[in-house]
Amino acid sequence: MKTGVRHHDLDDAGRTNGALNVSAHLRSPELVERLRALSGRRVLFHPLPGGAGDSLRQAATYQLFADLDIDFRILSDTDDVSGETLIIGGGGNLVPAFSSVRKTLLRAADAAREVIVLPQTVRGNEDLLERLGPSVEIFCRDAESYLHVLEHRSRAHARLAHDMSFFIDVERLRAAAGPAAEALLAKHAPDRPFARMMADSGHRFFFRKTRGRTKRIRPKSSVDISLAFKTGTKPGEAEVGALALLMYLDGVQELHTERLHVAIVGAMLDKRVYLYDDPLRIAGSAYRHSLHADYPKVQLIE
Question: Which of 108, 163, 190, 209 could be a cystine partner for 112, CB 3.0 to 4.6 Å?
């Protein structure tokens, strides 16, 4: 995909040509076949909350559901999950710092007919893993997560897959959210001389605003793009943030980031990417599983 977007000039934001660079195996054939078994059925879906990266993953999931003719309803706090099929959105949420996947599994694992967790990073949560039964399937988005599930005597089925971002179809995003995404991009166009200079250079830094999992120094020119394009993760919301993220990064030549989804988008757009690992090795493990072999322009900084 080439949108022709520059951060200081959004006149060309509507142009796209070509496709994202994604090998077929990164679209997780085993996961697709598992979900295909749900074709024509009604399921409950729990989209993960979060920023633009979560919007991207959930938007890709909605597209896949449509392709597979899976009828879904968003899980509410009052839903009775007894006997239902529940799908939990993919991401990096089954780790000690977050609770959405954990809480949903605690609520549903024993009552639902089946629970499918889309590709996740899994760290910690040993007590939860040990109590899960065979009605739960966890698709892991890196080998370390997969081994972590197996090592903690979980009766849940562990599978390997890749991040849901690799399923995204940009043209369908444009059809669903083009004007809204362009308005969001315009809102975040650089308005100060230094910011415009960095945008013109094409070399950008995208680090978290909060230091959280790392003590790495955050450059002053850094933009927390995930927060800037946070639009929600439900249908109609996710598509806007996802498309804005893709269009923004298309105007970059080289990017530095600790956020995995930013690195994945950069890789799919054929950018030079420097991905900085974190103490939980979330970025590094996913890099080795999904990026190292297919994207030589992506480099891991440990």
Answer: 108
Report d(CA 238, CA 104) in Å as an integer. Answer: 20
We report the CATH number of the domain holding residue 94 as 3.40.50
| Residue 281 maps to a domain | yes
pLDDT in tens, 247-274: 999 989 999 999 999 999 999 999 999 9
Q: Is 13 within the bounds of a domain?
A: no
Q: Among 134, 165, 196, which residue terminates a domain?
A: 165
Give the per-residue pLDDT at 135: 96
Provide the domain count of the chain: 2
Residues 151 and 186 occupy one common structural domain = no
Model pLDDT, residue 207: 74
CA 122 – CA 129 distance, rounded (Å): 10
Residue whose C-alpha is closest to residue 223's, from 58, 72, 52, 75 = 52
pTM of the model: 0.88
In a domain, 8, yes or no: no
Range of the domain at 58: 24-165
Please tell me whether residues 48 and 160 are part of one structural domain: yes
Q: HEC states along the chain? A: CCCCCECCECCCCCCCCCCCCCCHHHHCHHHHHHHHCCCCCEEEEECCCCCHHHHHHHHHHHHHHHHCCCEEEECCCCCCCCCCEEEECCEEEECCCCCHHHHHHHHHCCCCCEEEEEEEEECCCHHHHHHCCCCEEEEECCHHHHHHHHHCCCCCEEEECCCHHHHCCHHHHHHHHHHHHHHHHHHCCCCCHHHHHHHHHCEEEECCCCCCCCCCCCCCCCCCHHHHCCCCCCCCCHHHHHHHHHHHHHCCCEEEECCHHHHHHHHHCCCEEEEECCCCCHHHHHHHHHHCCCCCCEEEEC
Question: Model confidence over 174-228: pLDDT tens digits?
Answer: 999 999 999 999 987 655 554 554 555 566 767 777 655 555 666 666 778 889 9
